[in-house]
Amino acid sequence: MATAVQPLDGTYELDRTHSTVQFAVQHLGVSTFRASFGDIEARLTIDGSAAELEARAAVESVSIVEPPEFREHVVRGQDFFAADDHPLITFRSTSVVLDGQGIAVVSGKLTIHGIAREVTARGTLTPPTEDPFRVWRVGLALATTIDRREWGMDWQTPLPDGGDALGWEVEMSAHLELTRMSS
Q: Tens of pLDDT along 115-142?
């Protein structure tokens, strides 16, 4: 039985149910704190050799719930996300390289806390696959590490041994499943 091969070209919208955007940061030097965003959107557009990725996450949708005062500080605090002034984290690509072997390198402007900086994320692209409902899907997994101080998130407190309570480096990852929009 032959299977059809779908060209990668087209516009793909995020399947929010099957996608995650997370961050991870060292906490007290003993563990890695991880959180994710529930309200996310992304669009991948591919036209021949040109590609573009746009994405956003609502800060309010961060998975931190307890304790409430911790959530409030992270979401609204000026030394963290400052969601009242900057409710969205956004990304807009300036370069998308998909090598045909499943490797993806995406560079672009990441805006957090109202500050836009260039970042490069590396990962993999899973080529188009038709699901049982005749919808074409691609997978895009990307990761990068940023220094949160570059985005104005500079909260810190020293530990008794001289270390930092919270790491400066933040690992960011996006595991996106996207569906091809009808022509």
A: 999 999 999 999 899 999 999 999 999 9
Write the CA distances from 32 to 61, 109, 150, integer angstroms: 20, 26, 20
Rounded distance between C-alpha atoms, residue 55 and residue 93, angstroms: 9
pLDDT of 99 > 90? The answer is no
Q: Is 0.70 topped by the overall pTM?
A: yes
C-alpha 122/C-alpha 106 separation (Å) is 6
Which domains are delineated in the chain?
Answer: 10-180 (2.40.128.110)
pLDDT, one tens digit per residue, over 107-121 is 999 999 999 999 999
Instruction: Name which of 63, 142, 66 is nearest 105 in CA terms.
Output: 142
Helix (H) or strand (E) holding 161: none
Give the number of residues written for the chain: 183
Q: C-alpha distances in angstroms, 52 versus 12, 31, 108, 150, 181?
A: 10, 35, 10, 24, 15
- Determine the Cα–Cα distance for residues 173 and 27; give it in Å rounded to an integer: 18
Q: How many C-beta atoms surround the C-beta of residue 46 within 10 A?
A: 21
